[in-house]
Each structure stands twice: as structure tokens, then as C-alpha cells.
Amino acid sequence: MKPTKSFLSVFILLLISQLCFSQFKNTLKYTPETPPVKASLNDILWIQGHWRGEAFGGLTEEIWAPPLGNSMMFSFKLVNDNVVSFYEVGFIKQIGETLILKLKHFDGSLKGWEKKDETIDFKLVSVEPGKIYFDQLTFEKISKNEINVYVVISHDDGSHEEVKFNYKRYQ
After folding, report:
1. Rg (the chain; Cα; Å)
2. What is the structure's pLDDT at 33?
3. How far apart are CA 110 and CA 88, in angstroms?
4. Where does the signal sequence lie (predicted)?
């Protein structure tokens, strides 16, 4: 059977799009073909705590609460030159036999970036011991007192980059 031009065109387009989104080392991309992943909040208890690190030329702080009400809530802030650049508030929620991460951004005055009823949602892609992969966002346990968070950031020019947040437990 000889492949048609349209088949080859679709195949090449799919290959290019896959290469564009799999160019990053530490994150995975959710696709409609991604099979459902079973996980519970118990699989990610190691992210709870008070964490600090550096990114985007400033200091970062992330606080993860223990599970309550089928979710783990978090807050994040970035501080540049002793001024808050932005905040994030969100959760990882148990939905049936899987998890979803949802968040909202706020500027330093708590003015929301997203519309009132909108959230940024990250579907679960894979779970491994010490790693949890959401769509273009990964948590990695280095030790009891250190974690990495990798996230794919989109820029205005259409480019993307994977950013690493290295956090140490803050006492």
C-alpha cells in the first residue's frame, strides 16, 4: 500500500508538533491521546511544606498545605528587589482516580491576571517514585529537604522554554 500525499502531510505535521513539544528534558506534554493516569494525593505528600529558592532574578517562596478536602492548596510569590512581582494561588485536587493542578496569577497588588472564572489547568500525565508530571509542569523530589519544579513558559513571540525552580525546605 502506497502512502498518499495527505497521509504524509499529516504524519509530518504530527511529527513536527511532537518534536516542538517534546524538546524539553524534564516536562511532558498532555495530549488527548494521553491515557488516564491513576494517582492520589498520597503519592505527592512529599511536596507539602514551606519552600524557598531563586528564579527570574529574584527570590521565590512556595507553601504547600497537607491534604484536606481532597486537595492540597498552595501559594507562591516572586520577590524582585524586595518587591513582590506576582503571586500564584492554587491546588492539586483529587478527581476520581486522578489529580489535576489548577492555579491563578495575581500581580503584587492582588489584581488577577486571568478572568474571574478562569484558571490555568495542568492535567496529570505520569507519576513515578519521586516525580509527578502534569502537562508541562513537573515536581521532582531530590531529598526530604529539596525539590525541583520544572515548568514550560510561553513567551509573547511564540517561543517556549523550560524553567527550573530549585527549592530548599525553609524552617
Report:
1. 18
2. 87
3. 10
4. 1-22
Residue given cell 509542569 in the structure block: 137
At 7 the pLDDT is: 39
Alpha carbon 122 to chain centroid, angstroms: 6
Tell me which residue of 31, 95, 93 sits closest to 67, measured CA to CA. 93
Q: Output phi, psi for 4, to 5 deg.
A: -85, 165
- Give the chain as a 3 state SS string: CCCCHHHHHHHHHHHHHHHHHCCCCCCECCCCCCCCCCCCHHHHHHHCEEEEEEECCEEEEEEECCCECCEEEEEEEEEECCEEEEEEEEEEEEECCEEEEEEEEEECCCCECCCCCCCEEEEEEEEECCEEEEECEEEEEEECCEEEEEEEEECCCCCEEEEEEEEEECC
Domains belonging to the chain, first-starting first, are 26-169 (2.40.128.20)
Question: Is this structure's pTM higher than 0.85?
Answer: no
